[in-house]
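Let us practice reading a record.
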Amino acid sequence: MARLDVTETFKGITFPGHLHTQESLLYATKFNFQDTDILIVTFPKSGTTWMQEIVTLVSCKGDPVKSQTQPNWVRAPWIEQYYCPDVLKASQGPRVLTTHLPYKLLAPALQGSKAKVIYVARNPKDVIVSYYFFHKMANFLNDPGPFSEFLSSFLDGTVHYGSWFDHVKGWTGNSRNIENFLYITYEEMWEDLRGSLEKVSRFLQCPLLEQELISVQKTCSFNTMSENNMVNYTLVPQEIMDHSKGRFMRKGEIGDWVNTFSKEQSHNFDVVFASKMADSLLTFVWEAKKSCVDSEILPLCPT
């Protein structure tokens, strides 16, 4: 299914038609969650791929075979994408699922479920930049135009998948309605990968021995993942994702936004952010607090 130039609008939110249909989006809103499910929730470009890899490796006790032989979209399919039902029919054991959908669309399906939900958030300035460059290489996304226009669309909430502000506040603000909920940030994982892995393993009730933890940490480092074609999306055909225009796993840094935002754009963003997040207690790390150069295993992550 190509549909590279198709945009689907569902419940007032736009989605790329290459992967989404009205039927697939409706299927997601009525998804039959099982209590043993693990659901990874993110706004695009917030560390989705990284958490998919972490959950895979933690669940496999550090054994890298699955992460090296199965594409991440097979290991942890997006429930709103059209291929999901077929993938789940062929899967065995506890399911790992992924979604970019806002809370309001999945709330009815999750009601009463004991599924474990992991929400990964990232500082939105880095999200914007990563999303912008992804648009430049993904042929199923519209041309983003100049960065100033893309930034305006992001702040207005008119990019694909809707408003970042509504997304992050919707999920975190309703976490009390989800029986098993873990909130973690991209920056937290970047600055303390080992501690984050222990946090995820406790949440999943899957304790790791020291050697297993070391294996997970090594396998989900940026360098390792960027060379793994089950993770870096180089399996996707060139006509769908033009790898000559950029890498899916671009930098994996905190604070790279400073290389794209002008001072005026940063100031304007801060004003909008302060207004839209006035009713939220969430805080974000905007720049790296320390260098990872001295770390034995670089805790860098994909964009």
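A brief commentary: Residues 7-276 form a domain with the Rossmann fold fold (CATH 3.40.50.300).
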